[in-house]
Amino acid sequence: MSFARLAIAAVTLVAPLSQVAHASPGANADIVEPISRVRYHTVDVEGIKIFYREAGDAKAPVVLLLHGFATSSHMYRQLIPMLADRYHVIAPDLPGFGFSDAPPREQ
């Protein structure tokens, strides 16, 4: 699987920009909400199971957290809840890392 295909798959996890609500910082500063819970999902991309962590309101601006080589979305476990009160946060495990499937070696 190419990185371009993975990027396209990641974009399908988020709402189109035309549907994203943009709130100004501090717009709801008087409302105190508990830290958002992180949700765990998998999605099939061309036969490969991709795991991702998600938190925050789906109507908020999107932050996509991509990890580097030899890591996983687990590295963002403390950052995701801190961003989730203002953003829709998505952190996938790239193929072959974390809880995502590894593609066959010939691919």
Key traits:
elongated; alpha+beta; 14% helix; 2 helices; 4-stranded mixed β-sheet; 4 strands; single chain; 107 residues; Rossmann fold
Quote the distance from N terminus to C terminus: 6 Å
Q: Can you tell me the residue ranges where pLDDT is under 50 for at least 5 consecutive residues?
A: 11-35
What fold name stands as the CATH topology?
A: Rossmann fold
CATH hierarchy: architecture? 3-Layer(aba) Sandwich
Top CATH class: Alpha Beta
Q: What value does the average pLDDT take? A: 77
Largest β-sheet summary: 4 strands, mixed
Helical region count? 2
- CATH homologous superfamily grouping: Alpha/Beta hydrolase fold, catalytic domain
Sequence of secondary-structure elements: HEEEHE
Count of DSSP E strands? Answer: 4
> How do the strands line up in the largest sheet?
1-2-4-3
Query: Which geometry do the CA atoms define?
Result: elongated
Q: What count of structural domains?
A: 1
Estimate the helix proportion, in percent. Answer: 10-25%
Secondary-structure content class: alpha+beta
- The fraction of residues in strands falls at 15-25%
The value of Rg in angstroms is: 15 Å
Short summary:
The chain is an alpha+beta fold. It is 14% helix and 21% strand.
Written account of the structure:
It is a single chain. With 107 residues, the chain is α+β, with helices and mostly antiparallel strands. The protein has one domain: 3-Layer(aba) Sandwich (Rossmann fold), CATH 3.40.50.1820. It is 14% helix and 21% strand. It contains two helices and four strands. The chain has a four-stranded mixed sheet. Strand 3 (62-64), helix 2 (79-83) and strand 4 form a beta-alpha-beta unit. The radius of gyration is 15 Å and the shape is elongated. The termini are close together.
